[in-house]
Amino acid sequence: MQGASRDSLKSALARFEETVGSLPDGAGSGEVSEGLFAVAALLDREPSLRRAFTDPASSPRSRQLLVDTLLGSQLAPLPLSVLRELVSDRWNAPDDLREVVERLAATAALRAAEGSGKLDEVEDELFRFERLLEREPALRGALTDPGLPADRKTSLLRDLLGGKAQDATVRLLEIVVTRPRGRSLETAIEELLELAADRRSRYVAQVRVAQPLAADQETRLQASLTRIYGREVQLQVDVDPTVLGGLEVRVGDEVIDGTVSRRLHDVRRSLAGQ
């Protein structure tokens, strides 16, 4: 996302925090989330509507009136207000509006979880599900199969996670599974994890180790990463015997790889003359 769309995204996020984000304990966030997810689905189905809502030849007021006419009786006041502000902004491409609507919907869902004290659990469940996809290629194949109807994928998720994960976790995964928008499933989940981390202005460090870390080791590692990045860093530790020893730390696109398996790989490459 570039230019005007990037600026509009920043403005939209700021407005979200001023309005929805200022309400106590996640009040209204669930309503905003479901309303905006419904709008995102509509924009997916109706490219002409995406174009109309972002048409630079029409005035912001005209686009807001169009929203009122088409959706005023279907959306609750809070999500309607958010959408009216969005269509008054400038967008480089119609698809950018759809992406931001879905991003704000996910942000609202995470804020609702935060308000109920469940954000840590949702974040951890998303992380664990991402690891599950790595271990279960058949599951990943089913959830990404373009020939499998969306309702079958949703049923599969609910059968798998129903009663075992937070409702917000299941709902967010339903969205990324049924509306990939050209992203891999892993990329979509990573985006959700980043949004969850941003709720507390901190980073998430994904740590792979051969053996579980002791409490004091986690404390020292977290403190060290917090100093490096200048923000609080949350650890998500994944025990993986294939690393043999040491640890791998991934923060966003950065990887700090100190695993024995990586060093062995480097030695093999050097012996092979590569």
Q: What is the helix content?
A: 55-70%
| Biggest sheet: strand arrangement | 2-1-3-4
* Total DSSP E strands: 4
Sketch the topology as an H/E string, one letter per element: HHHHHHHHHHHEHEEEH
Total number of helical segments? Answer: 13
Largest sheet: 4 strands, mixed
Low-confidence stretches: none
Cα end-to-end separation? 37 Å
Instruction: Please tell me the overall pLDDT.
Output: 88
How many distinct folded domains?
Answer: 3
**Structural class by sheet pairing and helices:** alpha+beta
Into which percentage range does the β-strand content fall?
A: 5-15%
What's the shape? elongated
Structure description:
It is a single chain. The protein is of the alpha+beta class and 274 residues long. It has 3 domains: 116 residues; 83 residues, no CATH class; 70 residues, Glutaredoxin (3-Layer(aba) Sandwich). 64% of the residues lie in helices and 9% in strands. It has a 4-stranded mixed β-sheet with strand order 2-1-3-4, sandwiched between helices. α2 runs antiparallel to α6 and α10 packs across α11. It starts with a helix and ends with a helix.
